[in-house]
């Protein structure tokens, strides 16, 4: 369980300190039926080892599926830790902005710290990201999605700093879903603004009427179409890679401390491990804001390129 990979891998449990969620089964007959699959996966383990491994692990109920182990589903639809966190973040972001909308409808200007900081972020996304990338005329139409993406990603990144919860954006499935939404919005909006033919011709430069230039024009068209797919794939991989890399490095630093626990260098390793983890955590907070900004900015640029003739 000390593997750095498992530290960032999605799972079907939440982890807390062992003392807060101890297991003290006297025999395997006392183990609930919903957890028997864990014993079946490792039948050679003693009840003491079973209790030790499961202490601190709060298993997520699975009403719609069955688990093979704590990291793999056997059948059906299984609810993972990141799914629960993702749903919580969606409700949190939705609740915050429903409050902001109601408050903005009743007063003429922002008042209070929460209102002012949220309005500052909204104004920044609108004036510094959406309008320069999409244009003043069309920016407000796409602003709801850009604001949703920015605050959802930012909340996912920051909540991932809380031990035991996990970073939703370190899952390639989540970042791919976000990039796919950006792609679909750009595609649908481009066809709506330019028409199907105009949208496709946007990928083919005007090289004149010469027949000899048409093969080159077709080649450029195919490259541009492929480029759109690649750009959105990279949009997903960039966010995923940056978020998982930081947690892997952090897990590696802390694993080095554990590895020296039985040596005379434990104190020195612990000091530098805690110092390094603190510095990396501060850097992770900065990266959380930067990656939310980068994803939103690139999404705005891709949408702007789709709806404008160039």
Automatic annotation (TrEMBL):
CDD domains with a match to the protein in the record: ATP-synt_Fo_a_6
Transmembrane domains' residue ranges: 82-101, 142-162, 174-195, 215-237, 244-265, 271-304
Localisation: Cell membrane; Membrane
Protein name: ATP synthase subunit a
Membrane topology of the entry: Multi-pass membrane protein
Family: Belongs to the ATPase A chain family.
Gene: atpB_2
Keyword terms, alphabetized: ATP synthesis, Cell membrane, CF(0), Hydrogen ion transport, Ion transport, Membrane, Transmembrane, Transmembrane helix, Transport
Matching InterPro entries: ATP_synth_F0_asu, ATP_synth_F0_asu_bact/mt, F0_ATP_A_sf
Role summary: Key component of the proton channel; it plays a direct role in the translocation of protons across the membrane.
